[in-house]
Design a protein that fits this description.
Structural class: mainly alpha
Number of domains: 2
Shape: flat
Distance between the termini: 75 Å
Number of helices: 6
Number of strands: 0
Largest sheet: none
Radius of gyration: 22 Å
Helix content: 55-70%
Length: 166
């Protein structure tokens, strides 16, 4: 018998504690929901895509990526990557990034595209530890100008630029 560690040292008890396994499983479940609910809308063809085509295609891609992540977690040696949360979680960053879309929805309903885009980007940028009010504001202005040019003028998305709808 040799003293070399073997790949069989990674047992079922060990891979269940890996955060990549849980991330892959979660991504697989989200992809499964998208792939199952997507075909309830018209799929269309590659030339004329219907509203269900992209959710279905992205759901299938997510399923495949999630499976790859979960399987790759089983190949990591015991003792590595066992904590689900990082040692020093970035709670402010997570909260700001998750709050960004919420701010967009609220400000988009009340004020239009310009305040919604600026608010979303500003709040999400504020989640960065190195961000200052000035850097978040400048980023918000640049992305808002780009977003207005692309979505309002180029793509003609029917969302008012500025409105007051309390």
């Amino acid at each position: 018998m040799t003293d070399e560690p073997t790949r069989t040292a990674v047992s079922v008890r060990n891979w269940v504690r890996k955060r990549d396994f849980y991330a892959g499983t979660l991504i697989t479940l989200i992809g499964l929901v998208a792939a199952v609910t997507g075909p309830t809308y018209r799929l269309g063809t590659l030339v004329q895509m219907g509203p269900g085509f992209m959710p279905t295609a992205l759901g299938i891609v997510l399923i495949l990526l999630g499976i790859v992540m979960a399987v790759s977690a089983m190949t990591v040696a015991a003792g590595e990557d066992e904590n689900i949360l990082p040692e020093f979680p970035q709670w402010r960053g997570w909260l700001c990034v998750l709050a960004g879309p919420v701010v967009f929805v609220i400000l988009g309903t009340v004020g239009g595209l310009i305040p919604a885009t600026f608010g979303c980007v500003f709040v999400a940028a504020w989640g960065d530890r190195a961000a200052t009010l000035k850097s978040a504001g400048v980023l918000g202005l640049v992305v808002t100008a780009f977003g207005v040019a692309v979505f309002h003028y180029l793509l003609q998305v029917p969302m008012p630029l500025l409105t007051w709808n309390p």
